Amino acid sequence: MAGTGRAPLRDDPNVLVTVTDLEVEFPVGKGAVVHAVSGISFDVAEGETLGIVGESGCGKSTVAKSIIRLNSIKSGSVDYQGHDLAQLEGEALRKIRPDLQMIFQDPISSLNPRRKIRDVISEGLAVWGDEQGSWSQDRIEELMLAVGIDPKFGDRRPHQFSGGQCQRIGIARALALDPKVMICDEPVSALDVSVQAQVLNLLEDMKQRYGLTLLFISHDLSVVKNVSDRIIVMYLGKACEIGNADELYENPRHPYTRALLASIPEPAPTVDPSDGDIEGELPSPINPPAGCRFNTRCRHATDICYREEPVMQQVGDQDHYFACHHPVEVAVGL
Amino acid sequence: MAEPQLTVRDLTVRFPTTRGVVQALNGVNIELEKGQMLGIVGESGSGKSVTAKTLMNLLPRSAEVEGEVIFEGNDVRKLAAEGREHFWGVEMTMVFQDPMTSLNPVKKCGEQIAETLRYHLGRSKKEALEEAVDLLGQVGLPDPAKRVDQYPHELSGGLRQRVVIAMALACQPSLLIADEPTTAVDVTVQRNLLNLLDRLREERGMSMILITHDLGVARGRCDDVAVMYAGRIVERSDTETLFSDSRHPYTDALLRSIPRIEQPSHTRLEPIPGRPPELINPPEQCAYAPRCRFAQADCLEAIPESQGVKGMHEFACFHPANTDRGREALAANVAAGETAAGLPITGYAGGAA
Amino acid sequence: MSEQNQAIDLDVAAVVGLEDTPDDAVKKTLGWGFWLCVAWLGGLVVVALLAPVLPIADPTEVGNGPRGEGPSWAHWFGTDKAGRDVFARAVWGARVSIAVGAFAIAFGMLVGGTLGMLGGFLRGWVDQVISFVFFTVLSFPALVLAILIVTSFERSLQTVSLTIGILSVAPVGRLARAQTLVYAEREFVHAARVVGAKNGRILVKELLPNVLIPMGALGLLGIGIAIVAEGGLAFLGLSVFGEDAGSLSWGKLINESRSVRDLKNIPHVAFSIIGVMFLTILSLNFAGDRVREYTDVRETAF
Question: Which residue intervals of chain C are DSSP H helices?
Fold first, then answer.
């Protein structure tokens, strides 16, 4: 599944962000590099929620941070409304930042412990206030109410709030700048089960209310399915399968997607339990396998999988693409 | 019926802190039959880990413990007071969430397992190392003869957890307590680890307590499940009944709030409002009442006792979900627009009750 | 899960949070020990500042009292072998000692703190250069450096303060850099960058409060160390030069009375100065420690 290829890119005027052949590498000393993301192409349409799912080390967070340029990009382009974010630097990049906001994984660590939450939420407005006209306390109160934090607690500091509340404060901060695109990097994985649904529903509501486009990164397959219109499954820096959320979970074609769906504690009914039997360890991203990157653990692997990297291909004319030489044809259990 | 292997009666644990006394456990009762797998499910602060630590005698000295823990006829708390050796780690062992807390980073994996064997069972160095290789093989570590000479940091998270399991199993324990053993690993690794624990439990006839926040894990692996909230077991039953016919509103609400893989995308979730309660100076009322949509006046006046069929399906609630009493309570709250605790209930779609 | 329950939906967005109040701030107190230290330090500073107008003896007047007499009502700390009033000398000595300590640490915090934060935040070649400078300065024997500076210039209060200030740049800077590194990779710094904050704003608004507050507590400890360092220079006869009252310092006073014969015959001279110095440094250490604990933020919600 070391899928490359631009097949999943859509020719649609509503497309807001197009990522083409994105490659990200991190040096780890002695000339070695981690191949964090190795040629991934996808797009996100306006108002859509794109989920990226995969296990740790698959590069899903790196993709998110590259789009928002918290990482440096080795090659490829990130087109946003005619700007190539991969090429922007300095002031030009800063000018475009308000359009793309992010919600972080750790709700506590993402808030400055020494600042009042009112200042945390208004940080974006304070930065841009001079250039885009002044802002009012009403705006802050409106945001706090929108995310369910009583404005009268604006003078408290982050450690006085619970994890779920902190995450809502983080959402208010991101919303303050009226972003177009919101990147959510594992926004609920640090929260208690009973609080996760609050934050997921809040994100849905905010998406409707403020017309957001979401990029939602998570390792939790059920959570990703719940929030997403479209989903990308990643493995070791590559995309395995991309498609409409319901269709992808209904007819998973890639052996790795099936392995994931069969491995969760309550496996999806659309896969066979034996699909979850993948052996061995995740190969090192410093020296990833040639050909299909999943070949070391795939029970369908043949010669071609070690020689040739599979290319993204479409399932019929559906919004469903996979990169595999031996896709699973028959959905089990349907 | 024979005596259960483990009986916990009215276990209460308090921690004095600068902000007040934390009521970590409030009268916890557990019975575990030999060979059984009990799941303890709860959120952070529910007391699930404190329960495990109490059983393992790992609480800090400042903790005030009351109640009884009987394991195979032994009074465990008395053993602790006597400073008994070769009980914890031999009869009863534990696996923690983060394998690095149990492994010494500067010692080889094999040595660490061998040390356990030498200390508890008095094996010679050579015997112990041979057994360590054997154990690593049993827990499915590929190439165990090579792995004994590796340091923990040379292994992946999943393999490290296998080493910890091998260490826990070294002395043939009859009860293994696993505290979130798979929370830090990926789903494919989690599946393999849980399969391994299942297999080992069957092979050895060992009992197990699996502590998890993941309802799915408990549902898929446990014979019985106990749900904890604010230091109490609020519901306990065989797994099938608990998930299909839950009684406690918290269990019921928890099951509704998590997204399920078979639901179509964008299915609206039903969150639980509010947040888990403070454990310092809790009021004399049902701890879940402020978040509960069934809550009536009586829920705010007393802490509900455990009811239901003893040893089968017990729950601590005055107005249990999926019963007529619960439905009446809910209908009354819907009619009033809010619960007795003042939680507004709106968006009533009609057609119920 | 029966369908009866299914039909009811809580409008959680409306109720969540509003009745879900955050914790009250944990009331922490500094304790009476802290205030005792502050009282001592405050009193010391006031007395030192007011030394010229206070009704105390002239610290340089030889034969102000009998020679080498122990403490009495007239001479609280007794007199030295030249008959000078030791209490007056201690008060005047405090002026130099405290000035040197405070200035040196202020200089170290300003220069070292700025460099350390810049290095820790910007990384790359800036960090390498700054770290190399710190490393080099720390490897050079501090005493030799101090002797070099002090002997090359006029031995004035300014030179001595600056010397100790320069010596404190590297250790303070390394601490600031380490503290900055801890926070620079935290998600709230990324979050500030994402909303478009420039480097300067991130340094001042996000990092500075997190670096400065713990550093401030350390600064109090640092003043104590600088006072001792000045004493060390004075011991070598390298502190502020001169015979007038303005050149007195605690280190110099101890140095004058540290001969075996003096310690045997007139021990009260050395020991009363040592006692004052000891209490001062103890107070600085204790107060610094309490401030650090007091300003520590609990970062876990549960």
Answer: 3-6, 12-15, 32-49, 86-107, 113-122, 124-139, 142-152, 157-184, 187-194, 199-201, 208-235, 250-256, 260-265, 267-295
